[in-house]
Amino acid sequence: MADLRSNYLGLELRNPIIVGSSGLTNSVDKIKDIEKAGAGAVILKSLFEEQIMMQAHKNVAQSESFFNYPEAQDYIGNYTKENDVSEYLKLIREAKAAVSIPVIASINCVSPAEWLTFAHKMQEAGADALELNIFVLPSDPKHEGEENEQVYFDIAMAIIKEVSIPVSIKLSYYFSGLAKTMLKLSWTGIKGIVLFNRFFSPDIDIDKFEVTATNVFSSQEELAISLRWVAMLSDRLHCDIAASTGVHAGEDVVKQLLAGAKAVQIASTVYKNGTKVITEMVEFLDKWMDKHNFKTTAEFIGKMSFKETENPAAYERVQFMKHFAGIE
Predict the structure, then answer these.
(1) How far is CA 103 from the centre of its chain?
(2) Which residue ranges form the domains of the chain, and what is each CATH number?
(3) Greatest CA span in the chain, whole angstroms?
(4) What is the pLDDT of residues 66-80, one digit of tens each?
(5) Among positive and negative, which fits the CA dihedral 263, 39, 159, 178?
(6) Whole-structure pTM value
(7) Distance CA 217, CA 204 (A)
(8) How many whole angstroms separate alpha carbon 7 and alpha carbon 15?
(9) Angle between helices 276-291 and 28-37 (to 10 degrees)
(10) Residue 82 burial (10 A CB sphere; 0-12, 13-18, 19+)
(11) Which residues pair with residue 42 across a beta bridge?
(12) What would the mean pLDDT of 152-173 be, rounded to a whole number?
């Protein structure tokens, strides 16, 4: 039997398959089922900065009798935030006591200010690592691209100074200079970058005149988006890469590892197929490694990256021309 272990963020995983932050990971019972199915690690459902702040403001607004007492307003707002975080810390502690696989906390944040003490508390609660899910939609024409990108660096640097556990950042592909931004982020001291996070995609109900959600779950066809960037950057960054979005089967796991990912994150396929798909992925990886005589994952991780290519973008263009122009 092959050795499926992989090292990600300095953590030794029994295999590189991680169940990503989602409703699948919001309770101890679900996490125990995920471990039993064979996952290498779990990322807890994110604690959302905006959600906490909105609830705090709502509670303050509802307490009209305290409007003339700023101290009371501060107390209500702070109590709301502390209460939400306390529930999350409880989940970390109980999950760590219930399973032996790494438990990674997750924060969905848009600013560095609120999370410094919270991140430290997550570390104290026993989280093995911390994933920062950051997304600043570059939709405000008054903001320069550098301003939007600086938010990522501000958050990363602030959190890294606060905790000693490994920190990773989950990014989107909404960057004008994605490769350069990721390279610079890898210099900050973060231990990993996850490509890519998946967000609400809007649709319009033309009869109800409402904005609705579409494509809530990823599809296997979306694998190509992250696969390209994992392959192009896995040799260039000063941190690990984990692949996310579009990983639905064992073949997808292997492809991302060959491209250079140290781990993969899955969620949509577990929603669709249940935790048995985790077991199937692990079994596929094991059989594939035996078939190709790989004893450890380290022997083939990055084997199909663009390490030998000076200009990966040019390589991609050549393949495009070969396919569509018939150039040999």
Answers:
(1) 13
(2) 6-325 (3.20.20.70)
(3) 77
(4) 444 333 333 323 434
(5) positive
(6) 0.85
(7) 18
(8) 9
(9) 30
(10) middle
(11) 19, 103
(12) 92
